[in-house]
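tool=predict chain=A
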Amino acid sequence: MAEVNEATLSQLFQSDSGPPMPMVSERTRVVNEAGSVLLDKFSGSFVNAVLQAEKSAEKLLKIIVGNLSSYRDEATYQGQQVYLYKRAQILIGDIWACFDGQGLGEFHDINSITVFADYRVPQVLLYYGALTYSATAAQSAV
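tool=predict ok
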């Protein structure tokens, strides 16, 4: 992961219907970062990050956003810092669900995080004007 290049990543995620994977440069950067962090801080395995959290969803959330910038969805809104951490919370919820709240998925404080549909939060924030897209992002969302 730490050294995968754009060509390899594009090939791994190649669509059966033909269109190339969008945002391949950004996705490659994110995969490289995750690979480097896992190697440098967690002996190459995300399992070690989960174990380091000591069955705490909140601790795992802090580990994820503290080490992986792509999970750090923060913004300033009307002069106040807003922390969504949507993808990080979805990741933790998925781990919990995959393991039925047992073993690696056991979190004594799972109710302290928000689990929600991936696309709903941006839709609501956009509707209420708390989120705006750049012209480029708006065009790619169409």
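The mean pLDDT is 90. The beta strands are 74-77, 80-83.
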